[in-house]
Amino acid sequence: MSGFQTEKNLIRTYYTALDKATDQGITQVLRDFTAPQYTWRAYHPFHVQTDVAEISATFWQPFRHAITSMQRRIDVFFAGDNVIDGGQSTWVVSMGHLMGLFDHPWLGIQPTGKMVMLRYAEFHKVEDNKITETAFYFDIPHLMAQAGQSPFADQRGAHNIQPGPQPHDAVMYDDADLSEGRKTIDAIHAMITDLGTWQSGLPIEEELARTWSKDMIWWGPAGIGSTYTIERYAKQHAIPFRAAFTDRSSTGHIARLAEGQYGGFFGWPNFTARPTNGYLGLPPSDRLCEFRVIDLYRRENDKLAENWVFIDLLHFFSQMGVNLLDES
C-alpha cells in the first residue's frame, strides 16, 4: 500500500461536507477542514486568498447561488508525494465537473436556466489531517461558451464537455502500485525535458512522438479547444502557440506527483512568455506574461496518452489589458 488513505479520506469527507453545505455553512466547512495558515490559489478573478471567510463569500456562496442543485462529478482522483520538494509533502488531486442548473448571474455571465458543467481540477496539500494549500483551477470561459457567451471567436480545436479517461479507471480511492506511479512521473519528466527543444529545430511531430502516443488526446481549455492525434495537436495548438510566443521561461511547479497511470502538476506561474506575434485575437506585444496552468495526464505503456489542461486565459488576457468577463 502506498499509504495515502488518510489524505484521500480527508478530501472525500471534505467534498461531501462542502457540497451539502449552504451559505454560512460553507464557511464553517472550510474552517473545519483547513489549517489556520491556509493558501488558496484559484482562477482569475479570484487569485490567491488566505481567509476562508473571504473564499466562501467571494467564490463558493455566489457560485452555489448561481448554479443551483450542484453536484460534483469526479473523473480523476489520486494522491502522491510531491517530487518538487523531494517527497516531503503529500497532495490529493481531483478533476471533473461541478454540474448544476444555471439559474442566476455569476461574474456577469447571464443564466440560461439549463444544465451547465464547470470543469475543474484541484490539488490539495494535506498535513496533520488538515488542508494547508489548495490550487483550484476552473475553466470559466468553458462555462461562458455553454451559456452562449463565449469570448473567443477563432478557437482552433473542438469545444466539448470533457470526459474522464478512456479506461474509466482514474478514481483511485484505493491506493495504486507505487511502481506504476514512478513510471508515470518518468514519462511526465521526459515530456517536460522535451519542452526545452522549442528552439532546437527538431520537427514538432517528431519531438512529440518521443513522449506521446500517436493517438494522444489533448483536452484543452476553452479558447484553444481539444485536439486528437499528434498531427492535429501540432497543427491546432502546439505550432500556433509556439509561433505566437518568444522568450519562454523554463518550467516551474509547486507540486508534481503521480499515482498509478495518472499524474500531473501545477505552477504559479508555470512559465512566462511574450506574445510577440499575437495570440487568440490579441495584437502582438512585448509584455512578459505569466501562465498559470494545471496539467493532468494518463500514461499508457511508456508514453502519455491523454492530457487535461487548465490554463487561466482570463488572467493572460487581463495582463494584456482585456477583461473577458466584461464582454460576457
Describe this structure in words.
It is a single chain. The protein is α+β, with helices and mostly antiparallel strands and about 325 residues long. The protein folds into two domains: about 5-145, Roll (Nuclear Transport Factor 2, Chain: A); about 180-325, Roll (Nuclear Transport Factor 2, Chain: A), CATH 3.10.450.50. It has eight helices and 14 strands. The protein has helices spanning about 5-20, 25-35, 50-65, 140-145, 180-195, 205-210, 230-245, 315-320; strands spanning about 35-40, 45-50, 65-80, 90-100, 115-125, 130-140, 210-220, 225-230, 255-260, 260-265, 270-275, 290, 295-300, 305-310. The model has no long low-confidence stretch (mean pLDDT about 95).
Write the layout of secondary structure elements.
Elements: H1 5-20, H2 24-33, E1 34-42, E2 47-49, H3 52-66, E3 67-81, E4 90-102, E5 115-127, E6 130-138, H4 140-146, H5 178-194, H6 204-211, E7 212-219, E8 227-228, H7 230-244, E9 255-259, E10 262-266, E11 271-273, E12 289-291, E13 293-300, E14 303-311, H8 313-319
Parallel strand pairs: 1-6, 7-14
Antiparallel strand pairs: 1-2, 3-4, 4-5, 5-6, 7-8, 9-10, 10-13, 11-12, 13-14
Helix pairs in contact: 1-2, 2-3, 5-6, 6-7
- State the major sheet: 6 strands, mixed
At CATH level 2, the architecture of the largest domain is Roll
Task: Give start-end ranges of low-pLDDT stretches.
Answer: none
Proportion of β residues? 25-35%
| Silhouette | globular
Number of strands: 14
CATH first level of the largest domain: which class?
Answer: Alpha Beta
Here the CATH topology of the largest domain equals Nuclear Transport Factor 2, Chain: A
Helical segment tally? Answer: 8
Helix content: 25-40%
